[in-house]
């Protein structure tokens, strides 16, 4: 990132938070970088796999198209100076036939070229989107902690789309325009060096004026991108949080905030677009100056008998073709700048390394019994703020551990570390004596299953959702797992049973049903170590009993860590670990801890009091 990186919208966010607004987004910075050839090189690498196959066809078609276009004015000049002057109608017809043939060849060549460039462009975009998505899938939790989902979405959709034009037409048009420009310049100079030079003089003037605009245009488009990124982040957040919004009747505030963002985006787009449009008048004015020079100086040269009328007409046609590529090059330049900004953002993600990286010599974790040891484990999410302050814990295979403690005491952090969603800051965690940092991540996670409190249901059928635990499971195995965790009964009562379609997040299912599905999913995966974040939501007694029974089946014979909220789970745990501010304060089974009359005793008393009051 350049030193001159500015955070225009970041500043706005600061102001937003100071003025008490609810939504504050960490925006992408607006980057002020010079045109970056490294970026172009990196993008062009995506074309490499198709270069051998398709590029020769495109280049041939491009040259044929450009040459036929360049030849036409010469044919016109010939027709005027010979066929018309001599009154030779046969020759005139031959010239017209020649022109028609040239137009047809040009049309066919362009047609082919467009078809092939579209193919190559789509392939490149497909590859880029694939790379970006698959890379994001591998990134660690820390990466997602820092970014709103909406801004990630923008990079996969909008930013990649903005490269689409560049790859489908831009690159090839650039080459065509360059070939055409060079061709015209050579022809003009070849047929009359004086008139040619007089016309070409206007080109540098045009470039100097237009390049002055380029930096402004580039920055303006970057601002548009950051504004769009904010809108997406906000949209995503609002859709995810729609229930809370409606429950607290905050719709109006949300709409007002969105309108403000929308207007902001609209204004920045207008500004960028206006700047972009200023290219055209510049080109038109310079073009008009070019025509004036041509006719004034050309007429003079005809009088001097240095050129023919036909050549003047040909030059006038060439000037028409001349401004066209220059105009397109100007537009192309701003298109390139937008693409540069987009690719910067895309490659920034692709270059992001997972915080949790596998060791070079990582070996697969052999099938484990499930003995787990934490020694002096310290961890900080952010430097200088320890979430765990030196945890020691020894768990025998098959034991169940209940993690209890006040909110923010470090319970989820322990389970995050066991699954290696984050790497510990110091200390060691071993499974059957293997340090979890020395083994490959998939081999670890396939043996350490996790059921989160916020059960995620993907769009698809109930069957597919359970199969997520093990993709090669048969339908019979899926039903067996569902029966074992007492989910089968409610599933068969759904309209299409196991084939009932549920949408993302499983909104049509109750909390308890979602939990049972996630239990079936975990049972199907059959991990040796199971981590469970118990749902705190109050569910009816019948479902509670079902869940208790399901839990017994699920946990049987496995080492389990449970962030326990239910008294029944806590009581039956082999070991209860009481955490407070990242430290273990007490450890033991229910009876032992109750006798101690410490923190645990207090927590249990409070729960009993609460239950008594509720009932
Ligand atoms: N992603 C994160 N980034 C920064 N700090 C975090 C993150 N997650 C948790 N923390 C901090 O780490 C500490 C421990 O959090 P943790 O989620 O482990 O608590 P917990 O005991 O599971 O709480 P709860 O019962 O409310 O879920 C808290 O102070 C919390 O603010």
TrEMBL record:
<dbReference type="InterPro" id="IPR003439">
    <property type="entry name" value="ABC_transporter-like_ATP-bd"/>
</dbReference>
<feature type="transmembrane region" description="Helical">
    <location>
        <begin position="171"/>
        <end position="191"/>
    </location>
</feature>
<feature type="transmembrane region" description="Helical">
    <location>
        <begin position="54"/>
        <end position="79"/>
    </location>
</feature>
<dbReference type="Pfam" id="PF00005">
    <property type="entry name" value="ABC_tran"/>
</dbReference>
<dbReference type="InterPro" id="IPR027417">
    <property type="entry name" value="P-loop_NTPase"/>
</dbReference>
<keyword id="KW-0547">Nucleotide-binding</keyword>
<dbReference type="Pfam" id="PF00664">
    <property type="entry name" value="ABC_membrane"/>
</dbReference>
<dbReference type="InterPro" id="IPR003593">
    <property type="entry name" value="AAA+_ATPase"/>
</dbReference>
<feature type="transmembrane region" description="Helical">
    <location>
        <begin position="281"/>
        <end position="301"/>
    </location>
</feature>
<dbReference type="InterPro" id="IPR036640">
    <property type="entry name" value="ABC1_TM_sf"/>
</dbReference>
<keyword id="KW-1133">Transmembrane helix</keyword>
<keyword id="KW-0067">ATP-binding</keyword>
<dbReference type="InterPro" id="IPR011527">
    <property type="entry name" value="ABC1_TM_dom"/>
</dbReference>
<feature type="transmembrane region" description="Helical">
    <location>
        <begin position="197"/>
        <end position="215"/>
    </location>
</feature>
<feature type="transmembrane region" description="Helical">
    <location>
        <begin position="91"/>
        <end position="109"/>
    </location>
</feature>
<keyword id="KW-0812">Transmembrane</keyword>
<feature type="domain" description="ABC transporter">
    <location>
        <begin position="372"/>
        <end position="606"/>
    </location>
</feature>
<feature type="domain" description="ABC transmembrane type-1">
    <location>
        <begin position="57"/>
        <end position="336"/>
    </location>
</feature>
<dbReference type="GO" id="GO:0005524">
    <property type="term" value="F:ATP binding"/>
</dbReference>
<protein>
    <submittedName>
        <fullName>ABC transporter ATP-binding protein</fullName>
    </submittedName>
</protein>
<keyword id="KW-0472">Membrane</keyword>
<dbReference type="InterPro" id="IPR039421">
    <property type="entry name" value="Type_1_exporter"/>
</dbReference>
